[in-house]
Amino acid sequence: MTVPDSARERAAALRAQLHEHDYRYYVLDDPIILDAEYDRLFDELRQLEREYPELLAPDSPTQRVGGAARADFAPVRHRLPMLSLRKVTTEEELRDFDRRVRQLLGVDIVDYVGEPKLDGLAVSLIYEDGALVRGATRGDGETGEDVTANLKTIGAIPLRLRDPEKRVPPVLEVRGEVYLPLAGFKRWVDEATARGERVPVNPRNAAAGSLRQLDPAITAKRPLAFYAYGIGHVEGWRPRLHSQVLEHLRAWGFPLSELIERVRGADGAQRYFEAMQARRAKLAFDIDGVVFKLDDLAGQDELGTVSREPRWAVAYKFAAEEAETVVEDIDFQVGRTGALTPTARLRTVFVGGAHVSNATLHNLDEVARKGVMIGDWVIVRRAGDVIPEVKEVVLAKRPEHARALKVPERCPVCGSPVVREVGDPVARCTGGLTCPAQLTRALQHFASRRALDIEGLGEKLLGQLIEQGLVRKSSDIYHLDVKRLAELERMGEKSAQNLIDAIERSKDTTLARFIYALGIPQVGEATAQALAAHFGTLEALTEAALADAPTADAPNLKDKERFPQLRKVPDVGPEVARLISQWFAQEKHRALIEELRRAGVRWPDTKAPVEGPLSGKTFVLTGALPGMTRDEATALIEAHGGKVSGSVSKKTDYVVAGADAGSKLAKAEKLGVAVLDLDGLKALLGAAR
Ligand code: IVH
Question: Ligand 1: which residues within 6 Å by Cβ?
Answer without folding.
Answer: 83-85, 115, 117-118, 121-122, 138, 177, 229-230, 291, 310, 313, 315
